[in-house]
Amino acid sequence: MTITDTHRVLAWQAQSLLMSYPDQQLTGRLPLLREVSATLPSALGTPIRAFLDHAETTDPVDLAADYVATFDHHKRFSPYLTYFSHGDTRKRGVALLRFKHIYRAAGLVMRDDELPDHLAVVLEFAATADAEAGARLLIEHRAGVELLRLGLREAGSAWAPVLDSVSATLPALGRNERDAVAQLAAQGPPEEEVGLAPFAPSDYMPQGAAR
Question: What phi and psi, each to the nearest 5 degrees, are found at residue 80?
Fold first, then answer.
């Protein structure tokens, strides 16, 4: 089955929910997400169903704890896309502002407790506000998306298939992108010079702390 723009939008919406913190709302949506996944081409839907199989047979408390242990405790698995390209540097603050301006131009207002570069937020934006602009953001940060995917897969994470599905919505990696992934894997994100201010402006720091 050919992947259409409609398939991508549906997949991005499902992926956004699955990359968010797994609360009770997600538990209630699992049957609907399975129905949606069945309408998608195999490259998009099969990985989503693999995660759903896990989520449906895992205690919600354990699933939530695994999410926190994976994404909050390991920078290698950071769901914040600008971390991979800018690390904890002031340049990341400029990148975050750009995300916010793109969202605002499409009429999307961010919540105070969200950073705009969280993968779940970018996917939701692409699915519900501006598919073209959302796709551009994902492609611009493809190296980070791919490194996150590879890291989760190497770790045997339950969320690895979700990243497989995200990757399948994007163009195949070109040579330059493969080189960027290899370089990022070898060198890691940039590091801040000593003495500079925190990487994100205060309005992006929930409760005054950077993520």
Answer: -95, 110
Beta carbons of 55 and 30 less than 8 angstroms apart: yes
Q: In terms of Cα–Cα distance, which of 124, 126, 153, 127 is closest to 139?
A: 126
Residues facing 99 on adjacent strands: none
- pLDDT tens profile 162-209: 999 999 999 887 777 777 777 776 676 766 543 333 333 333 333 333
Backbone angles phi, psi at 45, to 5 degrees: -80, -40
Rg (the chain; Cα; Å): 17
* Residues 106, 109, 115, 119, CA torsion sign: negative
| Phi/psi of residue 18, nearest 5 degrees | -75, -25
Nearest to 7 by CA among 37, 31, 47: 37
Pairwise CA distance, residues 83 & 96, whole Å: 10
> Do 44 and 11 form a contact (C-beta atoms < 8 A)?
yes
Enter the pTM of the model.
Answer: 0.85
